[in-house]
Amino acid sequence: MNLAAIGMVAAPLIGCASRTEKPAMASAGAKPRPPKTGVPAQPQSQQLASVDRSITTPRGAQITEMAPPPDIFDAQILDLDFWLKPRTLEVVRPASNEKARLLYWKDGQIIDSAYQELCHLLRDVNGKKTTAIDPKLFETLWGTQAFIARYGIEQPLEILSGYRTAESNSKLREAGVPAARQSLHISGKAADIRVANLNSEVLGSLVRSFKQGGVGFYYRAGPRGGWIHADTGLQRTWKG
């Protein structure tokens, strides 16, 4: 399916509805930021990026996962109804063997009980602490999952890392894991994600096209492949 070919128009991205309910705090003192509204529309004539179906990691390992059609890179070209329909997010947390499928947003409002459960799923598994996750991050995760579902790729998002305490973040750095000293994971504004059968280059390019924050590409060889860091900070990209 080619979105441009069927005449879909550019529309505001995340948080385009007129009403947004502020979710309850998941922990004392935590203040989740309401979803951003009024993201400027992009011109319909925007060029679509092409897919390199023979992507190679920096170490030379061939990636063999399924590569979807070129349109998947361009989340800017979407119909308005896409952003107004109810939002159900399906996630799995390998570190705790948890999974859930939750309707967390409907009729322009966040459903508090589902939001709280999502915050719990993205908790610091090692530090055993939970905080309020930035609602805009959930919108990015939902938009990613809903967009690839249009191409028949219906898989839960694997959450490899969500919220981290400062202590957990320091331990990761000491263990040689790529973690920024002032990581946005610490403030509940970042997640490391993966989708089965979707290589990290394609997934990261899709997340980047939402233009809602930073995107880090982490290429790894092996059956599980790499992962993508998505956050709601400044727009930037990097490879790790």
Account of the 3D structure:
- The protein is an alpha+beta fold.
- Helices cover 20% and strands 18% of the residues.
- Mean pLDDT is 75; it is low at 1-70.
Q: Looking at the structure, what is the overall shape?
A: globular
Helix content: 10-25%
> What percent strand?
15-25%
Query: Structural class from helices and strands?
Result: alpha+beta
Based on CA atoms alone, the radius of gyration comes out at 17 Å
Question: Tally the helices: what do you get?
Answer: 5
Largest sheet geometry? 8 strands, mixed
List keywords for this structure.
single chain, about 240 residues, alpha+beta, 8-stranded mixed beta sheet, 8 strands
Short description:
The protein has helices at 80-84, 112-121, 135-149, 166-174, 200-209, and strands at residues 87-93, 98-106, 109-110, 157-161, 190-194, 214-218, 227-231, 236-239.
List the helices and strands and how they pair.
Layout (H helix, E strand, L loop, with lengths): L79 H5 L2 E7 L4 E9 L2 E2 L1 H10 L13 H15 L7 E5 L4 H9 L15 E5 L5 H10 L4 E5 L8 E5 L4 E4 L1
Parallel strand pairs: 1-4, 6-8
Antiparallel strand pairs: 1-2, 2-3, 4-5, 5-7, 6-7
